[in-house]
C-alpha cells in the first residue's frame, strides 16, 4: 500500500452522474458519507481520516474524488479514487457496478485495499482494464484492540523526532522492501520520504533507538477520532526471535489507544509469528482485508 503516491490529476465534477446509481460525490454529500463511514469506523478508517483532512466529500485539489452509489436517494456505498482505490461499505454487487465505471476512466493505481469481498470484487472488474497486478493478497486478517494490552509494554519505545529522520528512513525502507519486494527509494523516493517525515511530524512514528541503532519501529499509518491503524511494524533482524515483539506491540497499542478508543491492524495470513504476537497482546480477529498491489 502506498498512499503517499501522487494521484492522477484528471478532474471530476462534483455531483457528476456516471450511471443511474453512481455519481461523483459533492461537499453536500459529506453528512451522508460520514454516516456511511460510521457503520464501521475500523474498516473505513482510511476514508474517515481522508475526510477529516480534505474537509468534505467533494473532489480534492489533488485530483482524488469519491464515487457514491445510491438507492432511492440514499448513499449505500462509496469508493475513494486517488492513488489507491478504497471501498467503503461496498458489497460484491456494488463492487461490480463501481468497476464498470472505473475501467473506462483509464486511471492507474498503487493499490486496492480494504474488506476482502469488496477489494476482490473491484479487482475482478478492473482486470478487464490495462493495469496488471504484481501481487494479490486475498486473506489478511483484520485485528482490533479496544482494551488495555495483555502484555506489559516495553517502556523504551517512544515517539521519534525529526532529527532522527536519516536514521529512521533506512529502517522504514527495509520494512517496505521486506513486505513488497522492492525498495521505495530505488527511484529517489521523494514521495516516500515525504510520507515518513509527515508521520514523524504528526507524532505517529514510534521507535526504540539505542547506541545509534534502531531496534524496533512502527507507525500509526492512519488516525481518526474513532480509530487508529498500526502499520510499518519492523524489528531489526539482529533482535528477532528473542521474545521482545509482544512488549513492543503492547507499547504501540497503548499509545494508539490514548488517541482513539480502538486500534487495528491487518496482517498477511501466512505470517504466523506476527499473528501469534498480536493475539498475545490482546488483538482479536474481526474481519478480513485484501490488498491488490500494482
From TrEMBL:
<protein>
    <recommendedName>
        <fullName>N-acetyltransferase domain-containing protein</fullName>
    </recommendedName>
</protein>
<dbReference type="InterPro" id="IPR025289">
    <property type="entry name" value="DUF4081"/>
</dbReference>
<dbReference type="InterPro" id="IPR016181">
    <property type="entry name" value="Acyl_CoA_acyltransferase"/>
</dbReference>
<dbReference type="GO" id="GO:0016747">
    <property type="term" value="F:acyltransferase activity, transferring groups other than amino-acyl groups"/>
</dbReference>
<feature type="domain" description="N-acetyltransferase">
    <location>
        <begin position="157"/>
        <end position="294"/>
    </location>
</feature>
<dbReference type="InterPro" id="IPR000182">
    <property type="entry name" value="GNAT_dom"/>
</dbReference>
<dbReference type="Pfam" id="PF00583">
    <property type="entry name" value="Acetyltransf_1"/>
</dbReference>
<dbReference type="Pfam" id="PF13312">
    <property type="entry name" value="DUF4081"/>
</dbReference>
Amino acid at each position: 500500500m502506498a498512499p503517499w503516491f501522487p494521484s492522477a490529476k484528471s478532474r471530476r465534477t462534483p455531483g457528476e452522474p456516471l450511471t443511474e446509481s453512481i455519481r461523483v460525490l459533492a461537499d453536500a454529500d459529506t453528512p451522508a458519507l460520514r454516516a456511511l463511514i460510521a457503520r464501521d469506523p475500523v474498516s473505513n478508517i482510511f476514508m474517515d481520516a481522508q475526510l477529516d483532512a480534505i474537509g468534505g466529500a467533494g473532489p480534492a485539489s489533488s485530483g482524488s474524488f469519491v464515487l457514491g452509489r445510491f438507492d432511492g436517494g440514499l448513499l449505500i456505498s462509496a469508493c475513494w479514487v486517488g492513488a489507491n482505490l478504497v471501498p467503503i461499505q461496498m458489497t460484491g454487487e456494488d463492487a461490480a457496478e463501481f468497476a464498470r465505471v472505473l475501467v473506462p476512466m483509464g486511471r492507474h493505481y498503487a493499490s486496492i485495499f480494504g474488506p476482502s469481498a469488496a477489494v476482490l470484487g473491484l479487482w475482478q472488474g478492473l482486470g478487464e482494464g490495462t493495469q496488471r497486478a504484481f501481487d494479490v493478497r486475498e486473506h489478511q486478517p483484520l485485528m482490533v484492540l479496544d482494551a488495555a494490552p495483555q502484555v506489559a509494554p516495553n517502556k523504551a519505545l517512544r515517539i521519534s523526532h525529526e532529527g532522527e529522520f536519516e536514521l529512521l528512513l533506512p529502517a522504514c525502507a527495509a520494512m517496505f522492501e521486506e513486505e513488497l519486494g522492492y525498495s521505495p527509494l530505488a527511484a529517489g523516493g521523494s514521495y516516500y520520504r515525504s510520507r515518513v517525515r509527515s508521520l514523524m511530524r504528526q507524532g505517529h512514528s514510534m521507535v526504540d533507538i539505542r547506541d545509534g541503532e534502531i531496534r524496533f519501529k512502527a507507525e500509526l499509518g492512519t488516525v481518526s477520532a474513532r480509530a487508529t491503524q498500526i502499520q510499518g511494524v519492523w524489528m531489526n533482524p539482529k533482535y528477532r526471535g528473542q521474545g521482545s515483539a509482544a512488549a513492543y506491540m503492547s507499547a504501540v497499542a497503548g499509545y494508539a489507544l490514548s488517541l482513539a478508543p480502538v486500534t487495528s491492524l491487518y496482517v498477511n495470513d501466512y505470517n504466523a509469528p506476527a499473528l501469534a504476537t498480536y493475539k498475545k497482546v490482546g488483538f482479536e480477529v474481526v474481519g478480513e482485508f485484501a490488498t491488490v498491489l500494482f
